[in-house]
Amino acid sequence: MTEAIPVPVQKLHGKVAIVTGAASGIGAVTARLIANHGALAVVIADVQDAKGREVVASIGSNRCTYVHCDVADEDQVKYLVDSTVKMYGRLDVMYSNAGIASPSRQTVLELDLSWFDKLMAVNVRGMAACVKHAARAMVEKGVKGSIVCTASIVAECGTEGVTDYTMSKIVMAVNARGMAACVKHAARAMVEKGVKGSIVCTASFVAECGTEGVTDYTMSKHAVLGLMRSASVQLVKHGVRVNCLSPGLVATPMFITGYNLGEEELSKTMAAVYTGSQYGPVKEKDLADAVVFLASEDSALITGQNLIVDGGFGAQAVSVLGQNGDSIGMK
Fold this sequence. Notes:
The protein is α/β, with parallel strands linked by helices. It has two domains: about 10-150, NAD(P)-binding Rossmann-like Domain (Rossmann fold); about 195-310, Rossmann fold, CATH 3.40.50. The protein has helices at about 25-35, 50-60, 75-90, 115-125, 125-140, 165-170, 175-190, 215-235, 255-260, 265-275, 285-295, 315; strands at about 15-20, 40-45, 65-70, 95, 140-150, 155-160, 170-175, 195-205, 205-215, 240-245, 305-310. The chain is globular and about 45 Å long. Belongs to the short-chain dehydrogenases/reductases (SDR) family. This is Putative oxidoreductase. Its EC number is 1.1.1.-. One of its GO terms (molecular function) is oxidoreductase activity.
C-alpha cells in the first residue's frame, strides 16, 4: 500500500473530487494527495481497472471509489459524474487528466489522420465532455467548484514532430473530446447542486510552444486550452472555476512505455530536457501539488489560466524535443 503523503494543512476538507486518468502516473499521485488534504471522497476514473482499484485500496474504500470510464465515450463520462453526485450529494472538484500520447514522430508532412482522430477523441473531445458535465453538476447544485484540465507545454509552443499529438492531445477522442465530456458533465453536476466547484484539466507543455514532431498531440493540447478558456468565461457567473495544468516532461509510466525507454535512455532524455535547470526534472508530486492549489481556496480568484509546471524548460527555450528526428510527445 502506498504511504500517505503528509500535508501541513488540509486544503480540501469535505470536498468531493473526480480525477480522470487516475490509475497511474500524475493522476494517481494527485488523487492520493487530494485525499490527504481531507477530501470527503475521491472518485478514480480510468480504463485500467486493476490499477485503478489498487489506487482505491491505497486511499481507502471508505472514501474512495473506482469507476471504469473511457472519456472518449460521453455516456460513460455522464455516468461518472451522475453516479458521483448520487453517491456523495455534490461535486466540488473535477481534475480532467485522462489523455494519451502519440506513438509516432510524424511531422505535418506525414500526418496520419486516422491516429489524429483517435488523439482528438480522447485528448480534446473527452476533456470537453468532462468539463461540460462537471460544470453542469456544479451549477445545478450551486457549488463554487474548481475544474482543472491537464494540457501540455506543447500547447504553448510549436514542435518539430508529433504533429497529431500537438493538434489534439486518440489524440482528439481522448485528449480533447473526452476532456470536453468530463468538463460538461462535471459542470452540470456542480451547477445543479449549486456547488462553487473547481474543474482542472491536464494539458501539456506542448500547448505553449512549438515542437519538431508530435503534431497531432500538440493540436489536441491547444484544443484543451481553448476548451478551458471558453468554459471559464461561461461558468464564472456560477462560481465554478476552470483551469489547466501543463506539465513539462515527466517520467510517467505512459511516457516510458509509450516510447519504450530503457533506464539509460530515460536518464539521457531527462538530462537533455532539463540541461541548465536548477529546478527540474518535474516529478508527479510537483504536479499533484499544483492541482491541489487550483482545487483549493488558495486559488479562489484564479480561473481561465494555464499553470505551467515545467522546471524552467520553457524559459530556457531549448529545442530538445525532436532532435535527430526523435520527437517526444507527452501529457
